[in-house]
Amino acid sequence: MEGTAGVSGRRHPDESLLDSPDALAEHDPGGMLRFTASAGAQVRESAALAAEANLSLLVDEGRPRAVVIAGIGTAGRTGDVLATVAGPRCPVPVIPHRSSGVPGWVGAADVVIAVSASGRSPEALAAAEAAHRRGARLVAVGAPDSQLQSVAERARAPFIPVPRRAPARASLWALTVPVLLAARTLGLVKVNEADLAETAARLDADADRCRPTAESFVNPAKSLALGLAGSIPIVWGSSPLATVAARRFGDTLSANARYPVVTGALGEAGRGRVGLLDGVFGGLVEGERDIFADPQETDPDATRLRLVLLRDGGLNADDDSDEPLAVEERRADAVQALAERRGVRCDVITAEGGSALERLASLMAVPDFASVYLALAHGLDPMAVPAITEMKELSNP
Ligand SMILES: O=P(O)(O)OC[C@H]1O[C@H](O)[C@H](O)[C@@H](O)[C@@H]1O
Fold first, then answer.
1. Given ligand 1 and candidates 121, 171, 385, 396, which is best to mutate, with the most ligand atoms within 8 Å of its CB?
2. pLDDT, the chain, mean
3. What are residue 256's phi and psi, to 5 degrees?
4. pTM for the full predicted model
5. From 32, 98, 120, 269, which residue has the greatest number of CB atoms within 10 Å?
């Protein structure tokens, strides 16, 4: 089927596409699966690049009053990652900022980290310029030989060149690690070399489990994608860290697979959006289902919700988190029970690993791949985003 933008794909997913390496290659000409599999390598490469940059320039003026991470899209997500890895005990505010420039209060006592994969987003460029003008300390992260690098050079600010091999959304780890290491230099996060190595190793191991040649029944990303196919995904995170991973899944499901998706924190959803489970795409449609009927005959076209619960199970010590772990766990158990009572299917991914960064990686890796496989099951090229390009053309002066 061809859409009005010339994008071709199939409205109903074809499961067999996912188990055919030839079909996968044909629908992924840009290599999105390959880029997604490079997450571990991105961690290692960016750690090496950050080590070469002159981050020690940041130390001289001591601990900042606040840190602003300026960027849009995936670059903006790096600020959320920093905020959650820094955690509630972080001695200074860590503020992701997604609109142009910097907040009005930013001044000489603050640090601005401007992030842009292309090195040319107007938001990050305006933030870097504003930081320089106001005398704030600046760090810039993005493509080498870009406009962002020129601004950083003019400001005599450290610049961490992140080679541009993949689209921004497949470069989250390459962009995130320099942001974390800049914050480490400022004394705001405790990310050590072992954490980075273990995170990279976990991303490698998950990429192996999710590799294109691993068939759906042993491949957690293919089975997650097939479970989501044809549904409206709701992705809730049980903790602040898991919520960053939930929002990331929202980014990739929208951009790669072009699925509408609801994402958020379970704590907040429990006071409002959990009501979706009772609605026309939730309990009401599931209630119509006759459990004895042939599944082919029971309105196969009805759109249903599918819940993905990202659980941060068990490792965040109670004294180091916003909420006691027991509260988060009970809430996650409760939403699973609620979904089950209403017949809404639920996938659960539980964080693993010893550090916050590794736990985050363990919640992001499989969903990242699943978003690509979901695109491919619909015959969509996960790399092509004509609506985004068209939007930029129409809205640029
Ligand atoms: O990181 P940048 O190059 O500044 O790009 C920022 C954002 O720009 C566009 O909106 C892309 O669609 C996003 O995927 C990207 O994250």
1. 121
2. 92
3. -80, -50
4. 0.94
5. 32
